[in-house]
Fold:
Amino acid sequence: DIQMTQSPSSLSASVGDRVTITCRASQGISNYLAWYQQKPGKVPKLLIYAASTLQSGVPSRFSGSGSGTDFTLTISSLQPEDVATYYCQKYNSAPVTFGQGTKVEIK
Amino acid sequence: EVQLVESGGGLVKPGGSLRLSCAASGFTFSSYSMNWVRQAPGKGLEWVSSISSSSSYIYYADSVKGRFTISRDNAKNSLYLQMNSLRAEDTAVYYCARDRRPVTTYVVDYWGQGTLVTVSS
Structure:
């Protein structure tokens, strides 16, 4: 099965900082990569699919890139409401796998 | 408004069984693939199972294959997960989740609030 590895596991940044989270697949998955945001005590929310397509209603400060095995989620200007854990998900075929998550906090 | 409401969670002994239900509303349920995703306490997300709109295609995570059965009743707008031979490691919040497209993509755009399953003696 394809494994998804996120880095870092956690990060702390200041409001307004540019934040980048990386997700690496153990095998190529083309662009079948999604990103989810889960705020504390809340259900996950879809941010990006097809590696770079922003889900409707998601702020434009979020962006995704990558193809094959290496992907990134970027928050161009970190806001207090972005405190959350972020998960990547590969979905080219079953079994579906998520990354272990990246916890983002405000410094 | 899309709504997914899970029920059926609770405390069960190892080796026991439980059936989760998910009542869907606010969209044409029969047109969408559906998923179950779980999250152990303080842990990350784990995909459990998916079922296509007409139940023609069903997939399971290796960790539950042979023990869990996903099904749906389009006439009742309901999704189910029959869980047998439960283990302590199945303890988690189970989310009912809608695929973002009518075809199976495994990408979830709507989630229920989840139902907690605790497997303990």
Observations:
- The mean pLDDT of chain A is 97.
- The CA atoms of residues 38 and 44 of chain A lie 4 Å apart.
- Chain A touches chain B through 22 residues (CB under 8 Å).
